[in-house]
Write a structure and sequence with these properties.
Layout (H helix, E strand, L loop, with lengths): L1 H22 L6 E4 L6 H17 L5 E3 L6 H8 L7 E6 L5 H7 L11 E11 L1 E5 L7 H10 L5 E4 L8 H10 L4 E4 L3 H9 L5 E4 L1 H10 L2 E6 L25 E9 L4 H16 L1 H9 L7 E2 H22 L4
Parallel strand pairs: 1-2, 1-3, 6-7, 6-8
Antiparallel strand pairs: 3-10, 4-10, 4-11, 5-8, 5-9
Helix pairs in contact: 1-9, 2-9, 2-10
């Protein structure tokens, strides 16, 4: 009788899990982007959401919740009901913002452990760009100009400790530069500021800047990768130029609130694999200038943990920002 009871209990649990996976989603699933439209997370998130809509046949609206370099939107999802109906398309800065809060004497609005990694869609190094009207044509020109005009060369970002700020802070430290940081609420406004002549340079993921490089509006000078970036093969890395510590990747990944049932996570992960394999999605990623780098399961978890540990070290080295 005991064996029968145990078998019945196990069978019931398996049936419940299977039902949860098969029944999800039964209504629209919100995908939060913690930045305004036009930034890297938004540029990747929109084709992912469109593909999920085709797979699930339910609406997957994008909700942009900018503020505090992404902390507000990240925290909103971290504290949302763990049912799979609120997802986060996050940037790499998600892992460093809680440490930045601690460095500045604040209680973090969330911790990375409050968010469960599901799938990585892209992981590209940031790219340093200037307007083509700028007399600066190479990274050597850029460094010489910034050294000659301390405090006058300005760059925009998505906020303090954001994925657009940290790489520029790395370069400033490595090259001994004093530059003017002008933070905005997201990568979209930061790019608009550069295109509008409000600032003189920007470190961005390749997706948002690629159309402007192709159109001739922006000139890439260097990247923060270990190797040269696909599509930017003529652009040197900062490591090549003698700055071994200037390595930064702006990755975009899908997360759910921690505690979301395992069958629901499995369903979203399975659907994410289908998204990555879909020809229409691949075309959309290529058109937006993003390199598809899909990882899930242990592969994403390992990448995520290693990158998070490195970014925490970077934040501690940057220290408190007044």
């Amino acid at each position: 009788m005991l064996r029968r009871a145990l078998f019945a209990g196990t069978a019931a649990a398996v049936a419940t899990a299977a039902h949860a996976q098969e029944g999800f989603p039964a209504r629209p699933v919100t995908m939060t982007v913690a930045f305004p439209p036009g930034g890297q997370a938004d540029v990747v998130g929109r084709p992912v959401a469109a593909a999920l809509e085709r797979i699930w046949r339910v609406a997957v609206p994008i909700v942009n919740r900018p503020g505090a370099a992404g902390e507000i939107g990240n925290a909103a999802v971290a504290r949302a009901a763990p049912d799979g109906y609120t997802l986060l398309m996050a940037l790499s800065s998600m892992t460093l913002l809680p440490e930045a809060a601690r460095v500045n004497g604040r209680q973090p609005a969330y911790t990375p452990e409050m968010l469960a990694p599901i799938a990585l869609f892209s992981a590209d190094p940031t790219v340093l760009v200037v307007p083509t009207a700028s007399p600066v044509r190479t990274i050597e020109d850029f460094i010489a100009d910034a050294k000659a005009r301390p405090g006058q060369v300005s760059y925009s970002s998505a906020g303090n400790y954001s994925a657009l700020h940290v790489p520029m802070a790395q370069l400033s430290q490595a090259a001994g530069l004093d530059m003017l940081h002008v933070p905005f609420q997201g990568g979209g406004p930061a790019l608009t500021a550069l295109l509008g002549g409000q600032v003189q340079c920007l470190a961005s993921g390749p997706g948002p800047i690629a159309p402007h490089v192709r159109s001739g509006a922006l000139r890439p000078l260097a990247t923060w990768g270990r190797t040269r970036l696909a599509g930017f093969e003529d652009v040197p890395t900062l490591i090549e130029k003698g700055f071994p510590d200037c390595e930064f990747y702006i990755w975009v990944g899908l997360f759910a609130p921690a505690g979301t049932p395992a069958p629901v996570i499995a369903r979203i992960r399975e659907s994410s694999r289908l998204v990555a394999a879909e020809a229409e999605f691949q075309r959309a990623m290529a058109a937006s200038g993003n390199t598809l780098d899909f990882r899930d399961g242990d592969a994403f978890a390992t990448f995520y943990a290693e990158d998070a540990a490195r970014l925490v070290r970077v934040v501690r080295a940057l220290g408190k920002i007044e």
